[in-house]
Amino acid sequence: MEDFMRQAMELAALAGTNGDVPVGCVIVKDGAVIGRGYNRREEDCDAVAHAEVEAIREACRHLGSWRLSGCALVVTLEPCPMCAGAIIQSRLDAVYYGAQDEKGGACGSVLNLFEERFNHKPRLYGGILGADCAAQLQDFFGALRM
Asked: Mean pLDDT throughout 124-141?
């Protein structure tokens, strides 16, 4: 999964270049990337344009279905409640994330929506290149403060 996380980090860098929080995401099926996304809230003036939502939309178009069974989502930052909900609704099999989000994470940091009584529970793996993903975020916010 590290190779896919590196691809997600490249997408995150695009978000940062555009003034968005650098979060990137890829969706993988059978070893191939079928969906890509990065934060576009500032760029699109859209509150729900998170990396995960963008990648889910692209993967759904690629498969011609809203069901992403057999797919894994790889994202640089622990998903928020909205994105965790989208993951549940799209029936993704697994989520791999890099850095924890102590203020807004819905996969264990603040709460874990995947442990609630929803009809679908993806497998969850955290800390994939976590230090690198966290550094990417810290560098972005450090530059903003200067």
From this structure: 97
CA distances from 4 to 31, 86, 114, 126 (A): 9, 20, 22, 14
As a whole number, mean pLDDT of residues 49-59 equals 98
- Output the average pLDDT for the chain: 97
Residue 65, classed as helix, strand or coil, is coil
What's 114's DSSP letter? G
Number of residues that this document lists for the chain: 146
Q: Would you say residue 49 has pLDDT above 90? A: yes
Block residue for tokens 């009584």:
117
- If one counts every other C-beta atom within 10 angstroms of the C-beta of residue 32, the result is 9
Identify which of 73, 63, 16 has the alpha carbon closest to the alpha carbon of residue 40.
16
Q: In the 8-state DSSP scheme, what is residue 3?
A: H
> Hunting for tokens 């690198």 — which residue is that?
132
d(C-alpha 101, C-alpha 79), whole Å:
8
Identity of the amino acid at 28: V
Which pLDDT band holds residue 77 (cuts at 50, 70, 90)? very high
pTM, rounded to two decimals: 0.96
Which residues carry out catalysis? 52
